[in-house]
Specification:
single chain, mainly alpha, Cytochrome p450-Terp, domain 2, 16 helices, Citrate Synthase, domain 1, globular
């Protein structure tokens, strides 16, 4: 038996596998999908084209792009049984992501293990799950509001159709803003949910179970739940002149400042910088003005109160602002994040399934000495 290796808590900076999907360079403030700068893709590509890149390893030609859109469009449709199930589980207190967990589990009944599938079958399973997630989330949201579920439009683009199904309308500018956000959040290194999904996939389990493993990690407020909390902080602060006292109180109580700081970036988060430019260019609203003023005040306050500790706005800070401006309510901020991240999860699950190696670390026992009879 090989000798166990001690590593930092939380596996910080521990390399556990190789990947061709992407990487985050925290010191540089840079991340990429395959060989492409992710923020460049968010500025210029369709969501479907980046989805194709994540799954197949290359951006599509115009013909491939059209074929891929035709392939995934019909997969957004959910059947009557799924809608009926959602009607049973959705109440005003049930969050869309919790409803998604139930609906995906039901849809995945009978799924074959990835271990028993060939590559084509695995890709089919990945596309099916990633395509249906936005429809389920939108349906759960509308049911929670006492509204009728809107059917998916297989001929519409993925982002516009999601925004329409969730809010009842999708103008081109709002859809384009949301597309930028969704592309920036498809993948981001070996984050907790991606790793969780890969752990499940490493056992040879099915695609739906692997995605549900990722979803379970994503539900944690330290991971997927920050966009709405960051917007709530803006509401709590109110006038930017209140920021310094607000920050001081949070620091004295040892509380996290949602929307600031990142586990990897040691400089400005490139996703936040991109989303900031989008909202400043497109939305001349009081919320945008407040957000940019508060961002500067928080950075200055942190620098004064904790000299040497640099904390910058992360993607969640401006994600909440952008989603508010396109018409999504706070309860749909984290689910919308999930609409993008499920594409990254499934790409990672496919890569892990192809590797065929189970992830099996060990733990150091630190409890009482065991009793021997």
């Amino acid at each position: 038996m090989s000798t166990p290796i001690s590593v930092p808590r939380g596996l910080k900076n521990v390399i556990v596998t190789d990947t061709e999907i992407g990487d985050v360079r925290g010191e540089e403030g840079f991340y990429h999908y395959r060989e492409y700068d992710a923020t460049d893709l968010a500025r210029s590509s369709t969501f479907e084209d980046v989805w194709h890149l994540m799954v197949f390893g290359a951006l599509p030609s115009p013909e491939q792009s059209a074929a891929f859109a035709r392939r995934v469009g019909p997969l957004r449709t959910i059947d009557g049984a799924t809608v009926d199930l959602l009607r049973q589980v959705v109440t005003p207190g049930v969050e869309p992501l919790a409803a998604l967990r139930v609906a995906l589990a039901a849809i995945g009944v009978g799924d074959r293990p990835l271990f028993d599938m060939d590559e084509t079958e695995r890709v089919d399973a990945a596309l099916r799950v990633a395509a249906v997630v936005p429809t389920i989330l939108a349906a759960a949201h509308r049911l929670s509001q006492g509204k009728e579920v809107l059917d998916a439009d297989p001929d519409a683009d993925h982002v516009s159709d999601y925004l329409r199904m969730a809010t009842g309308a999708a103008n081109p500018d709002s859809a384009d803003s949301l597309r930028t956000y969704l592309i920036t959040t498809i993948d981001h290194g070996f984050n907790a949910s991606t790793f969780a999904g890969r752990v499940v996939a490493s056992t040879g389990s099915d695609m739906t179970s692997s995605v549900l493993g990722a979803l379970g990690a994503f539900l944690g407020p330290l991971h997927g739940g920050a966009p709405s909390r960051a917007l709530a902080a803006l509401e709590e602060i109110g006038d930017p002149s209140n920021t310094r006292d607000w920050v001081r109180g949070r620091i004295e109580r040892g509380e996290i400042i949602m929307g600031f700081g990142h586990a990897v970036y040691r400089t400005h988060d490139p996703r936040a910088e991109l989303l900031k430019s989008v909202v400043q260019q497109r939305y001349r609203t009081s919320l945008v003005r407040q957000a940019t003023s508060v961002e500067a005040e928080i950075e200055a306050a942190i620098n004064d109160l904790k000299p040497g500790r640099k904390l910058y706005a992360n993607v969640e800070f401006y994600a909440g602002v952008l989603m508010h401006e396109v018409g999504l309510p706070p309860e749909m901020f984290t689910p919308t994040f999930g609409v993008a991240r499920v594409v990254g999860w499934t790409a990672n699950i496919l890569e892990q399934a192809a590797e065929g190696k189970i992830i099996r670390p060990v733990a150091r026992y630190v409890g009482p000495e065991p009793r021997r009879v």
